[in-house]
Amino acid sequence: MSAHSQAIARASGSRRAKDFAFRLGMFLCLGLAIGLLGLLLVDVARDGAGRLTWDFVTSFTSIDTDQAGIQAALWGTIWLMGVCAVFIVPVGVATAIYLEEYADDTKWWNRLIEVNIQNLAAVPSIVYGILGLAFLVRGPLSLGPVILAGGLTLGLLVLPVVIISAREAIRAVPPSIREGSMALGATQWQTIRRQVLPAAIPGIATGVILSLARAIGETAPLIVIGAATVVAFNPTSVNDAFTAMPIQIFDWITRPSNDTNNYAPLAAAGILLLMILLLLMNSVAIWLRNRYEQKW
Amino acid sequence: MRDQPVTEHQDRQEETAGLRRPLGVRSGDGSPVPAVEGVPQERRKPREAIFELGDVQVSYGPKPAVRGVTFEIGKNEITALIGPSGCGKSTLIRCLNRMNDLIPTAKVEGQVLYHGQNLYAKEVDAVEVRKRIGMVFQKPNPFPKSIFDNIAFGPRVLGMKGSMDEIVERALTHAALWDEVKDRLKTNAFGMSGGQQQRLCIARCLAVEPDVILMDEPCSALDPISTGKIEDLMMDLKREYSIVIVTHNMQQAARVSDKTAFFTVELDDEEHRSGRVIEFDDTDKIFTNPSDSRTEAYVTGKVG
Amino acid sequence: MIKGLLMLAALISILTTTGIVLSLIEETIVFLGDVGIGDFLFGTEWSPLFEPPSFGVLPLVTGTLLISLVAMLVATPLGLGAAIYLAEYARPGVRKTIKPILELLAGVPTIVFGYFALTFFTPEILRSLFSLDVAIFNGLVGGIIIGFLIIPTVASISEDSMSAVPQSLREGAFGLGAAKLQVTMRVVFPAALSGIVASLVLAMSRAVGETMVVVIASGLVPQWGANLGDAMETMTAFIATTAKGDIATGSTAYKTIFAVGMTLFVITLIMNLLSIRFVRKYRQVYE
């Protein structure tokens, strides 16, 4: 046996130990992150599960914690999401179509729009609240702190996300489909309307649902535009004052508790309900994505 | 006793090994070197075998990709693996330095001996294996670093002692690249041409002072002039290293190699296609008077 | 015609940015006219609602930056470690189950993290488990929790970046006899560096802009100092609490929202532009 054959049989112990320690360390990083999430969910569930009853969902808020419920906030959130969706779907999809199908990349204004959208996606959400306050609630439109203003503000916040995911859905449709349609004599718009869009709809829908899932949990912009916290009615029109789930939860968290009234379980129950809604929305989005996923 | 001067490389190997030279090595003029005292008698082979492959079979999953591989790779020789696409040449060469370990579903059966030691024994460390058996790939793959850092990478991670400047210069000279790049060692390796990048990869491999160099179609992505330069380099390198090369280019195999193994695809008993070695012999014989008709068909250009 | 309509839709995004910038600039300019830019930018006391009021924004800025720094100290090792594990070590099955879980972490509303920070983390972990002498509202918990919150940002972009490094580079390194640790840290990680840096800058930008966690758990008293164990108000927390009350348009309090908002916007804008530049750089390397 030569030196070579002897050397390769002598495995380097310290090197293997280092490799293992490194791998373990990286795994622990992942574990810690997920561990904290688990801890958080367990804590919320433990605090709130007892209080999440049907009464809770159907009662209005009250100083008396035995009576308090989240109904107004739940309906407020539902109305807000409605307005938000009505805004982001046409505007987001139209923008995505424009950027993907019509816009000439070499023109500076189109590139500006793209960079702009990327920037907007990373602006802190509270700044959108300031925007809403200055232009929608007061200022030029002066809508007041109503559902319409809230829904539009949230819409502006998540619009970049909708645009980006709609663009990806449209981009995923292969050029051959467009070419086939145009070769038959269809115009660009006809091609988009009848071929590209239908093919991209599942991806777009997934993006919209995920955007709404993001919007539903946003608190800061709603605080700034003046969502109310003690509201004992459900909205009946877009011009009503409103509260929303995150706002109501925030109110309960920051209210000092005393011997007769403990607000912490209310907050936890509200959080649980919010998480359940989120889970539902994400599940629908994932189901959509898997069900209609096209392998081109 | 030694009649002939041996190369620096072997000197260094023996210094570190502390062994006397094994039996059977021929000196330059072909006469056998007398046995050194105290070394036990071994089977005398006409040349020293670096690798001994016995009925090697590789599978990526349930069915084998290549089977029935049995031949030897000789020291200071160039052994070529030729044959049509898909018959397992690349798969086989990757067994020789345990690169198939990187593919979770790969399974290697049969005997692969390196200097008499089972390469796939449990206690063998694949990293140590690869220090000694280097590889050059089909598409040049320099790191996105400077030329200097590319060459120095291997010595640095292996903890080799000595001046990096010297190590790098020596490797680049060995690979016939020094004059071309000596003034731009700190520039990014991607700025070189394809042929230069491949020679850089060879230099990178040489810097860790391997025993064997495996080349998986090293010239298939290059132009004829670069190919010629690398072929010349190979003939030069075989004085110090043992080389195994996979090539699609028959003329290349005929030009540079000493021994050739011809692979082809066969249907086995279960109607599954897998590669196997049909013939292994001196290159001259394979190309002028092959024993198997399939070999003859391939080398005369009738098929493949 | 259709094209025109679509372009109009696209312009809404431009309008949004213009609106943000305009609204912020206008009120800020008026505000600075009243207060003076030097006093604002370099003053160290922030008490706008006192008599006499003081408008030095530095305590808010340092509060924000300190908490964000703590967040980065948490998110950088954990996020990069998770990314390295997922990109280089995890089996495909593990990767497929873990990635959605990380997405889940990213989808939890920040108010939930705020609740967790105040009601569990400060009392049970910081005070009880680690026996730290921190106030009920403190900067440390804000930083730590925000750190966990931004881990998915770091992990997901860094992991993409590392996975994009071609396998041929790894093979080349393995072929030279490098061990996996060396291949990962000396070849893959440096090759993916610009994407990794982009993820860190983006994560920090998120930390700076984060509101609910700090509003709930870090207190509403601006601190000119670096005591993480005490309450520290951030720019975002200030904006949120001020806007919560009923403030008259045009009042000083109203204007402070915009002035601080402007400061926040400029800081995050710079970070975002930097991050976009880095992302573009990493995309180019392999094209």
Based on helices, strands and strand pairing, what is the structural class of chain B?
alpha/beta
- CATH fold naming of chain C: MetI-like fold
Q: How many DSSP H or I helices of chain C?
A: 12
The residue-averaged pLDDT of chain C reads: 87
Number of strands of chain C: 2
- CATH architecture field of chain C: Orthogonal Bundle
What's the count of strands of chain B? 10
Low-confidence stretches of chain B: 1-45
* Overall mean pLDDT of chain B: 82
Main sheet specs of chain B: 10 strands, mixed
What string gives the helices and strands of chain B in order? HEEEHEEHEHHHHEHEHEEHH
As a percent range, the share of helical residues of chain B equals 25-40%
Q: Please give the largest β-sheet of chain C.
A: 2 strands, antiparallel
Strand content of chain B: 15-25%
Termini Cα gap of chain B = 49 Å
Instruction: Walk across the major sheet of chain B and give the strand order.
Output: 5-4-1-2-10-9-3-8-7-6
Q: Which residues of chain C sit in consecutive blocks of at least 5 with pLDDT less than 50?
A: none
Features:
heterotrimer; B: 304 residues; alpha/beta; Rossmann fold; ten-stranded mixed β-sheet; 11 helices; 10 strands; 24% strand; globular; C: 287 residues; mainly alpha; MetI-like fold; two-stranded antiparallel ribbon
